[in-house]
Design a protein that fits this description.
Layout lengths: L1 H9 L16 H8 L6 H13 L7 H11 L4 H12 L7 H12 L5 H9 L18 H17 L5 H13 L1 H5 L7 H11 L6 H22 L28
Helix pairs in contact: 2-3, 3-8, 4-5, 4-12, 5-12, 6-11, 8-11
Amino acid sequence: ISANAYCHRLGRPLVEVKGASNDPMSYTQTFLKMMGMNPHPKLARALDVLFILHADHEQNCSASGMRHLTSSGVDVYTSVGGAASALYGPRHGGANEAVLKMLQKIGDKKNIPDFIKAVKAKKVRLMGFGHRVYKNYDPRARIVRKLADDVFSVTGKEPMIEIAEELEKIALSDPFFVKRKLYPNVDFYSGLIYKAMGFPTDFFTVLFTIPRTAGWLSHWNEFLDDPENVIVRPRQVYLGRNNVDYKPVASRQ
């Protein structure tokens, strides 16, 4: 669906791929071929690893949305649609796109010190650093950084990688960020890999959605198999004023 939507968007004919029975292509090679892109084994492996790393990750925003929607008894397609909508947000699945825009805005390594000052002054946000679960270096980020070199050996080095590496180096040595446990997360380098492979920036979230659908469906199955799968209803604690007298609309300020 994703590959066909991409081709349709660009006005390209849809690509039907049939792997030879004696040498079938991998899932990711087939996907790249259907996208009209280079199904090089190194690129396919990089995409495969990224898909595995993004397949599931605890009770994140979209997974929680999947479970909440499923608890109402709605069909699985609606649940997946709601989860995908949550993933689209820049604080969730759109984070690697936000990283790329940040690096583009920095533009050059010489501009990093001024950017760091702006981050500390809360004038701009440092994207791709920090995580709600990991309070040290995201283990997935180490894997993704190594993948980048494999991808660049095929596609050529992505120019913005030098800005990313310098930004990481400065941030990891600055007490301001170390104290706040702001380390690179999985989104910091993944966007650069996707860009080097030729994916458009606004397609990054789709690349997140493809593997995460497996995670969502796992949550869906788990919820349905639970005999106590009552509708999700978080408790809300009222913190407003008490004993407030009613005032007619005309007399309100």
